[in-house]
Amino acid sequence: MPHKCSGPRRTYRDSPAGRLGIVPRMRTLCAGLVVLALVLAGCGGDDNESSSQSTSTQQSTSTAAGGGDTANAAGKQVFTSNCGGCHTLADAGTNGQVGPNLDELKPDKATAQRQVENGGGKMPAFKDKLSAEQIDQVATYVSSVAGQS
Predict the structure, then answer these.
(1) What is the predicted pLDDT for the residue at 19?
(2) Any residues with CB less than 8 A from the CB of 52 and at least 6 apart, and which?
C-alpha cells in the first residue's frame, strides 16, 4: 500500500508567521554581501574620469601661476583623490588609517610606483584605474614629500 501524505501540501507562502522561508533569508544574505562589497571597494576614492579632470585643472592652474612644481601639484591631486582615504601623508593633509603611514614608511619612487600599479596587502592595484602618467605623478609626489613635513 503506497503511503499518502495527509493534508494539503505546504508552500513558502504557507509558512507559519514569524518564520522566514529560504527565499527571504537568501535575499537578506545577498543584500548584506552587496553592502559589504561596496564598503570594501570604497578605498579607491573618486572615479577615474573626475580624477583626470581635476588633475588637468590642477596642472593648468599650476602652470599658469608660473609654478615649476607641476608634477608635484598633479601628483598631490591624484594622491588626495585616490590614496588619502587610506594613507596618512602630512603634505597632502590626509590621515587615513587603513594603509601604512607614508611619512613613516618614506618609500622611494620605484617602490611607490610598483605598489600603486600592482597593489598588495589590503591595497588594490590602480594600473587599470589611473593612467601611466598619473601613476608616475603620484609616485614622484609621495617619494619626494613623505617624511618631510
Answers:
(1) 55
(2) 131, 134
